[in-house]
Specification:
This protein is of the alpha/beta class. 40% of the residues lie in helices and 21% in strands. A six-stranded mixed sheet has the order 2-1-3-5-6-4. Helix 4 packs across helix 5, helix 4 crosses helix 11 and helix 11 crosses helix 12. The longest helix is centred in the C-terminal third of the chain and has 16 residues. It starts with a strand and ends with a helix.
Length: 277
């Protein structure tokens, strides 16, 4: 079977490496290709499936653009308003969001509980949407989102704010001026990602107000943000588990069966050797 990743610029993607390891573990001859397409090609890609794919992942800037061309959409993807996995069948094309599943599984693996927690999320981009939906579904007690521009963020996150009118939008300046902390802080911004590894979206003093810190960045393995949290005694978790878990979740949809949970740590180990070996 043929699979791939739909996007615009995909040169640095780790997806082929991850999926090939899954195929190897399953003993299949399936293939996974990078599928760079221009915006005007998306409707045909989804509706006609000219590549003859069984499934495709979707990355920026097409996670929202594919939605009008779907036959069906999974509940979590509809709530989030973004799709990162397409399943092509004889009945049509269904969209899913496995970023949601990947983030949820990552927190469970790290032993970070959200129920009843006061949570602060940094950023309001595409990655934040799946994170926020997990937080809502896992019944976080309070949600605060730190943004640069409240008007723009309000527009981007409109349907989340409608679901949870108690969500607080604050600018970084407002949050840093206060003394409020909480149980969990989550970075969904690219600040601190390789090669600009020395930066953190918030000062160490602010990060130190939380019992657990999560960064969806996976390269480097420990960002400045996570290093600050660890030094303050917090539990920390980077985004590598999410990256691999969302790929495994996609394969489970396409293959129609659950895969061995041991695949995730095994693939993570190989990727860590790629980064640091």
């Amino acid at each position: 079977m043929k699979f791939g990743l739909l996007g615009r610029v995909l040169g640095h993607s780790l997806s082929p490496q991850i999926h090939q390891q899954i195929f190897q573990a399953m003993g299949t001859g399936d293939t996974y290709a990078l599928l760079e397409r221009e915006p005007e090609e998306i409707a045909r890609f989804v509706r006609e499936n000219p590549e003859g794919l069984r499934g495709s992942n979707v990355t920026i800037p097409y996670k929202e653009r594919v939605i009008p061309y779907l036959t069906d959409i999974a509940p979590e993807a509809e709530k989030i308003g973004a799709v990162n996995t397409l399943s092509f069948t004889s009945h049509g094309v269904k969209g899913y969001n496995t970023d949601y599943l990947g983030f949820d599984r990552m927190l469970q693996a790290a032993g970070i509980s959200l129920m009843g927690a006061d949570v602060t999320v940094l950023g309001n981009g595409g990655a934040a949407k799946a994170v926020l939906q997990v937080l809502a579904d896992r019944q976080a007690a309070s949600l605060r989102i730190l943004v640069r521009d409240k008007a723009k963020a309000g527009k981007a996150l409109g349907h989340f704010l409608a679901q949870r009118p108690d969500i607080r939008l604050e600018t970084y300046e407002e949050a840093l001026a206060g003394k409020t902390g909480g149980q969990v802080i989550i970075n969904t911004t690219p600040v601190g990602m390789f090669p600009k590894v020395g930066a953190s979206p918030v000062p160490a003093e602010f990060t130190g107000r939380f019992a657990a810190a999560v960064d969806i960045i996976y390269n480097p393995g420990e960002t400045r943000f996570l290093a600050d949290a660890r030094k303050a005694g917090a539990k920390t978790c980077n985004g590598l588990y999410m990256l691999v878990a969302q790929a495994v979740a996609s394969e489970e949809i396409w293959q129609g069966k659950a895969l061995d949970p041991a695949l995730i740590p095994a693939i993570m180990k190989q990727l860590e050797e790629t980064f640091h070996g």
